[in-house]
Amino acid sequence: MERTPVSSSNISAIGYDSDNQVLEVEFTNGSVYSYSGVPPGEHEGFMNTDSKGQYFHANIKNRYAFTKH
């Protein structure tokens, strides 16, 4: 999955597969997590927010099943 670089102190890039509703988050420490069942609107909100970390903690983390790569 192609990931788009983002401006954030903890998140380096975000990818999204709309067909499978899978969100990939690459952190600045190099770890990558895939979150399943993430609707397109959630991805849009994540990409458009000024604070990626704050949005991630409020809307993604602990709300969707994930796997670590």
Description:
With 69 residues, the protein is α+β, with helices and mostly antiparallel strands. Strands 1-2-3-4-5 form a 5-stranded antiparallel beta sheet, covered by helices on one side. Strand 3 and strand 4 form a beta hairpin.
| Helix fraction by DSSP (H/I, runs of at least 4) | 25-40%
Q: Number of helical segments?
A: 2
Which consecutive residue ranges, at least 5 long each, have pLDDT under 50? none
* Total strands: 5
Q: Keyphrases for this structure?
A:
alpha+beta; 2 helices; 26% helix
How are the SSEs ordered, and which strands pair?
Layout: E1 3-5, E2 11-17, E3 22-27, E4 32-36, H1 40-48, H2 52-60, E5 66-68
Antiparallel strand pairs: 1-2, 2-3, 3-4, 4-5
Helix pairs in contact: 1-2
Short structural description:
By secondary structure, the protein is α+β, with helices and mostly antiparallel strands. Helices cover 26% and strands 35% of the residues.
